[in-house]
Write a structure and sequence with these properties.
The structure is a single chain. This protein is α+β, with helices and mostly antiparallel strands. It has one helix spanning 10-59, and strands at 71-77, 80-88, 103-112, 115-125.
């Protein structure tokens, strides 16, 4: 009877390398997916901040009648460019929220390249104003 010396056979080494490859590929895949998800969520958060700031700038306007032509601007946050498209008094706005010299319906869309990250609508009216 032959006595086996310590060590691994070639089959055991190949099996171990294969098993480690599968485990590493799963971890790498999870890491890449998590990174992509985090990046997307950070961009959506930035887009939400841009929406809030854009709406606040329009709310501070003293002349809602001047807000009628579409506005498209670009803003960079954390080295990522965002396109902000503002539409005033869109044709599909609710009829009970009509635009007037003292009121405006606003739709703002924030994009990163071709992807729409956030869209929101609001209606501003000056209180105590007569139309």
């Amino acid at each position: 009877m032959k006595h086996r010396e310590g060590g691994l056979t070639m089959v055991e080494v190949v099996f171990a390398i294969g098993a480690l490859s599968i485990v590493f590929s799963v971890f790498i895949s999870m890491f890449v997916n998590n990174f992509t998800l985090n990046t997307t969520e950070m961009q959506k958060t930035a887009a939400t901040r841009i929406l809030e700031e854009t709406f606040e700038s329009y709310r501070k306007s003293t002349d809602y009648a001047s807000l009628r032509q579409p506005i498209s601007t670009t803003r960079t946050v954390d080295n990522v460019p965002y396109t902000i498209n503002s539409t005033f008094c869109p044709s599909d706005a609710p009829t009970d929220m009509a635009c007037s010299p003292s009121a405006v319906y606003i739709r703002v869309e924030v994009r990163n390249e071709d992807e729409v990250l956030q869209t929101a609508d609001t209606y501003y009216a000056r209180f105590g104003s007569v139309e």
